Amino acid sequence: MYVVEYFTRKNGRQPAGEWRSALDKRLRKVIDGKIKKLGQYGLELLGTDILKTISGDDRDFYELRGGQCRVAMYHARGSDTFILLYGWLKKKQVQQQDIDQAHRLLQEFLSGKGE
Known about the structure:
Number of domains: 1
CATH architecture: 2-Layer Sandwich
CATH class: Alpha Beta
Structural class: alpha+beta
Radius of gyration: 13 Å
Low-confidence stretches: none
Number of strands: 5
Distance between the termini: 25 Å
CATH superfamily: RelE-like
CATH topology: YaeB-like fold
Strand order of the largest sheet: 1-5-4-3-2
Helix content: 25-40%
Shape: globular
Number of helices: 3
């Protein structure tokens, strides 16, 4: 089993958690199912339609997918914990601004951890 946590900013806000809470019941059920699978299987989901690596210069930066829901997250190698950073709804095209926001939150998380 793996631990799945929401990143909490210094101001107490949880971007991915707040996004999830604002989803309608149907979408929330979809993403909750994917989060549960992540907690069960972790990186074994890589290569499936559920978990993809977000390309770029960051290792350990992933996208959890469920229908049109996307959640960017971080997983440190050797850890059993996944940190959910930022969520968005996928449109037809890649939404670079969402990836960029997730990347900024990842940097904030890492700097707060002293890494």
